[in-house]
Amino acid sequence: MVARRKVAVVGAALSDCGRVDDATPYALHAQAARRALADAGLDRTLIDGFASAGLGTLAPVEVAAYLGLRPTWVDSTSVGGSTWEVMAAHAADAIAAGHARAVLLVYGSTARADVRAGRRTGTLSFGTRGPLQFEVPYGHTLIAKYAMAARRHMIEYGTTIEQLAEVAVQARANAALNPEAMFRTPVTVDEVLAGPMIADPFTKLHCCVRSDGGAAVLLVAEEYIRDCRTSPVWVLGAGECVSHAALSEWPDFTVSPAAVSGRLAFERAGVRPSEIDVAEIYDAFTYMTLVTLEDLGFCAKGEGGAFVEKGRLRVEGGELPVNTDGGGLSAQHPGMRGLFLLVEAVRQLRGEGGERQVRRGDGTLPRLAVASGTGGWFCSSGTVVLGTG
Fold first, then answer.
1. Which residue, 65, 106, 119, 385, shows the most beta carbons closer than 10 Å to its own?
2. Are 143 and 198 contacting, i.e. CB atoms less than 8 angstroms apart?
3. For 189-228, where are the E strands, in sequence order?
């Protein structure tokens, strides 16, 4: 039996993000990819694996061609926001098994610019075919689905709207430390509650920002680490799970598929949630952060509200810094944001957070991070545990 190779992230970068009116999605893919390669200090000729989703008719064929790559291992898994954590898991398995030596994950979107230019509307539609045909007549928008789940948690466990608002407040506090964040002005719970209603109980600041931007991550086999300019961030364990296609098929609105993907990731990494120093969690809406914290095991089911209201998610003074860049609620959210979670986790573990850098109690850099993405309407989840040791 061939020994499995260790796998590390050696390159992680963002393209220009926020308000980018003069670039195409392809250009943002390329910019992020070039920056990730430069970050790693490796030549693109080493790349024999490529993963991309969300752009082109034949993703990742079109994006690979645009980048001048001819990969012999590809992945186009598309499961919404969790796509990139799932792809990272697939890439790590492929490298470990010897099917690839270096895999590039890349994403780019001009979601904000497209709306401004009239190339698309502000309403995201997944169509009316398949299981969705039974929900569309009732006006179930994507936001409404998450709002219904949040309301169920409030009814079931007494979670308050103020506790959900705390997620947005603390995300903005972290964004204030990030010069690349789209919105950095601090907000209060009262300001979150006073905003315009989007989908009860979510007001505007309970919802992610709409931005442009791209991201890229490069994973390589352990024998190439010596050629890199960066310190390796090892992929310790990963898990994935899909839950339901329609909201009516979801057994429990208060349990996300992260309950499964998280358990698998921690078990495979050989670590406990209590050992994690920093968490990057998909936060298209405040409820996503709260319920994912529960499902990953950072607090018991139903205790997410009490957990977040203590300021635990803040970079400054928080027990478990979460979404250290400001997350999708304040930093950037150009669509399927899962790859941005991996980039931020890597930066934190390498000590590149700048003013938002997380430190352990003894002043040392974090050693373990988790990135957990969610897709669709809690339909899918991918969780990756990363470490420096």
1. 106
2. yes
3. 197-199, 202-203, 213-221
Token pair of 327 as six digits = 């997350």
Residue with tokens 């442009």: 212
281-314 pLDDT, tens digit per residue, is 999 999 999 999 999 999 999 999 999 999 999 9
Q: pLDDT tens digits for 313-354?
A: 999 999 999 999 999 999 999 989 999 999 999 999 999 999
d(CA 260, CA 256): 8
| Rounded Cα gap, residues 3 and 331, in angstroms | 41
Coil, strand or helix: which one is 327? helix
97, pLDDT greater than 90: yes
- With both helix axes pointing from N to C terminus, report the angle between 161-175 and 286-295 in degrees, rounded to the nearest 10: 100
Burial of 378 (0-12, 13-18, 19+ CB in 10 A): buried
Q: What is the enclosing helix (H) or strand (E) of 235?
A: strand 233-242
Confirm if 13 and 39 have CB atoms less than 8 A apart.
yes
Helices (H) and strands (E) in the chain, counts: 12, 11
Long-range pairs for 352-355: beta carbons < 8 A, 24 or more residues apart: 353/315, 353/324, 354/177, 354/178, 354/179, 355/177, 355/178, 355/179
Q: Residue written as tokens 């790859």? A: 339
Cα separation, 14 vs 30, whole angstroms: 10
* Rounded CA separation 130/337 (Å): 25
Phi, psi angles (nearest 5°) of residue 24: -90, 165
State residue 116's pLDDT score.
83
Confidence of residue 1 (pLDDT cuts 50, 70, 90): very low
Dihedral over Cα of 79, 323, 238, 387: its sign: positive
pLDDT at 123 over 70: no
